[in-house]
Amino acid sequence: MRDLKSTKAMWLKGWLFLLIGVLSAGILLIENWSWRNAVLLALCVWGFCRAYYFAFYVIERWVDPKFKFSGLGHFLVHTWRRRSGR
Length: 86
Prior knowledge:
By secondary structure, the chain is mostly helical.
């Protein structure tokens, strides 16, 4: 797959991701409403956002600045190869 170059397409993609998240969270909470579920869902989203930030920003800036990752799969393959000594 080639790199996305269009600024409008990037904005659209970002808004669609936000829409998916809001709709899916809303459906989960409508079906199983409780404050406990709302807090756990918020913590889940926050935790995965921080992990994503770590995988790209922190790793690329401070752990291995010479390597650029194109996705989480690429990050996992790089980590696996680095640990196995390849």
